[in-house]
Amino acid sequence: MEGHVARFALLLCITVAASASNQTCDPTEVTDNPWVYVSEMLIGCWSSFIREDKAEVHILNLNFAGTDSKMFSLEMNNAKPTTLILTSPDIAYGLSNINADVHIYINNDSTITIHGNEHHNNVHTLQFPTEDEELVKWARQKFGGVTSLTTVRNLKTMTSTGTKGTKPGSRSCILRNEDALEKHFMKIETAPLAASVKSCSPQQQNPGDDAELHIINIPENASTRNVSLRVDAKETKVFLRGPQGTTWTFLNPMHTQFGSNNDILLPTITHRIPPLFTLSSDNAGDVQRKALEHFRVTTFTSYTELRPEDYMVMLVLRKKDNPAVIDTAPAPVIPITTNAPHQMPLVMQLYASPDYRSPLDPNTKVQSDKRIYAEISGHTLGDIELTIKVIRCFVRSTGSCPIVKELPFMPEACSANSCPGSARLSFSLDQLPEMTSTTWDMECSVKLCYSEKCGDGGRVKRNLEVTQPCLQPPTPPCFDFGLPGVLGIAFGGFLIGVLLIGALWFIRIKTGYPTGLDISSTAANLPGCPCSGAKRQPVSTNPSPSENSSANASIGSTQSTPTSSMA
Q1: Strand duo 302-308 + 212-217: pairing
Q2: Which phi-psi region, left, alpha or beta, contains residue 171 (left: φ > 0; alpha: ψ -120 to 50)?
Q3: Is residue 348 within 8 Å of residue 341, measured between CB atoms?
Q4: Model's pTM, two decimal places?
Q5: What is the DSSP code string of 209-264?
Q6: Burial of 181 by CB count in 10 Å (0-12 exposed, 13-18 middle, 19+ buried)?
Q7: Looking at the DSSP assignment, which residues form a beta bridge with residue 238?
């Protein structure tokens, strides 16, 4: 019996040991890491400058030190009108495919040779300085300004994306260490940076996990102390381990959770996060087990161990679906999210009531006289929750005559328990102008805050279908009469009838009703009245005293003659 128990315990130990070994992996030297791409943070600048003739001015500083291949190609057939200044301290050969709106300038003493299949007259030679600051000053005097300066080491191909090459903001191009991959107007393909890279993946992975876990380890004896990290994969967990004094800078935190034994810098809010744990060992197995323990998972996606030769490097964590390609173009615009690659993605959801329980469908039309409730939410960064503050909101019509109007809003209560990492507000569209268009874009500018420090959080957009409320015709007032009212109206009618009958009877008594009245004589005495106000008098045969005196005399003489003769 005891023997069976001992064998069972031994079998259990072997199973546990095998399971633990499957959770880790042994890294091997690789020439092309499928998960992490190593490059450099080099000097450059980017501005909003554009010439009066709509041409942009770009400077490309090429460095081919440490590589045998010194050939590159420029694919700018679909580029905007561009003045491209090329400079390099090394001998290099370039193949150009440009359009008629692209003009290339190289130094008279340059070691760059440009070959092209057409537009040979668009390649010019001038005398200009090669040092970065002096070159920017010269270009500013010669062309009025500089749109961008980009330093590239070991360039293979530079391809224009056909988009505008300006950046909103200042017109001055100020030199600094930059991530050239942020410049969406071009795609840059370079030869891999010289670095010792080891990589591996565990044998067992759970494909059902939503978030990948990537582990990056810089050994203790490496000279690198400043590492910039660009994460192109969404829903990602990153475990970072480096020598003491190393600083990891997240260029685009996106949907990233992280943990590190070093300081982490978030440039979006200019805040430094202290180490989340202590790990002095740089052994691959120890680092992998610590990562599993920190994130409380059973497996990870990749482990990368590198020893860069430069003090400052940049790592690009590639996408899972296509690890061999670095996508430098901006993501397509989504109506309800932000599109700034260096900002944390934000989402705006609309609600019809202040309880925030029933979200409105994106295709639902909202009435301009109704109050609308909105919630703007983001995602946490590692163990840190950022708060969102809404600064301003605008609405913009999408018709042929666009109208931009500031949208007043009211902040709504939002506690850490009800809506962590979110901001709530309410607004009404009753102040919109006459609706020439029913489709509007709503855009809000926000800030991301941690503790008392805030930084630019970008913008969040949402499209709205707005309808005017149905206007009902005014209803005439309806009088409701009770019993007293009915009796009063009846009595009033009776009284008015009695008075009218009495008046008619009085008129009858005073005027009489003349029977056998001569209409013509009556009309002669009382024009326009069928009845006279006085009694009828018999018609006198004597002439009126007012008759002509001569007529009276003649009548009198006529009457006296027979009398005298009869006598």
Answers
A1: parallel
A2: alpha
A3: no
A4: 0.53
A5: -SSEEEEEE--TT----EEEEEE-SSSEEEEEE--TT-EEEEEE-TTEEEEESSEE
A6: buried
A7: 214, 258
CA distances from 516 to 87, 486, 507, 524 (A): 132, 47, 20, 16
Distance of alpha carbon 83 from alpha carbon 101, whole angstroms: 8
Listed in sequence order, the residues at least 6 apart from 224 whose beta carbon sits closer than 8 Å to its beta carbon are 218, 242, 246, 307, 308, 310, 311, 312, 313
What phi-psi label fits residue 543: left (phi over 0), alpha (psi between -120 and 50 degrees) or beta? beta
- What CA–CA distances, in Å, run from 539 to 455, 500, 514, 522, 543? 119, 37, 17, 13, 11
DSSP output for 504-539: HHHHHHHH---TT--HHHHHHHSTT-SS-SS---PP
Could you tell me which residues come within 8 angstroms of residue 315 by beta carbon, excluding any fewer than 6 positions away?
36, 37, 38, 39, 216, 227, 228, 229, 230
d(CA 261, CA 278): 5
The one-letter amino acid code at 223 reads: S
Query: CA 337, CA 347: separation in Å to the nearest integer?
Result: 5
For residue 193, what are its two tokens?
């940076």
Q: Per-residue confidence of the chain (567 residues) as pLDDT tens digits?
A: 455 545 544 454 444 444 444 578 999 988 778 888 887 778 899 999 999 999 999 999 998 876 667 889 999 999 999 999 999 988 888 888 999 999 999 998 888 888 876 788 899 999 999 899 999 999 999 999 999 999 998 889 999 999 999 998 889 999 988 878 789 999 998 876 666 789 998 876 655 555 789 999 999 888 777 888 888 776 788 999 999 889 998 877 656 788 999 998 877 666 788 898 999 899 999 999 999 999 999 899 999 998 877 667 888 887 654 443 333 333 333 334 444 444 556 888 888 888 888 888 877 788 777 889 999 887 555 555 677 889 999 888 876 677 888 889 998 887 766 777 788 999 988 776 655 557 888 889 888 776 666 777 778 888 888 776 655 555 555 555 567 777 778 878 888 888 888 888 888 887 765 544 444 444 444 444 444 444 444 544 444 444 444 444 444 444 444 433 332
C-alpha atoms less than 13 angstroms from C-alpha of 565 in its C-beta half-sphere: 6
The CA distance from 336 to 317, in Å, is 26
* Partner residues linked to 160 by β-bridges: 186
Judge whether 229 and 251 are in contact, CB under 8 Å: yes
Contact call for residues 61 and 131 (beta carbons, < 8 A): no
**Residues 33-61 as b or e (16 or more Cβ within 10 Å = b):** bebbbbbbbbebbbbebbeeeebbbbbbb
What are residue 70's phi and psi, to 5 degrees? -120, 35
Selection from 151, 150, 144 nearest residue 165 by Cα: 150
Length of the chain equals 567
Hunting for tokens 């390609």 — which residue is that?
Answer: 325
Sign of CA dihedral 177, 181, 182, 184: positive
Query: Mapping DSSP to helix (H, G, I), strand (E, B) and coil, where does residue 540 land?
Result: coil
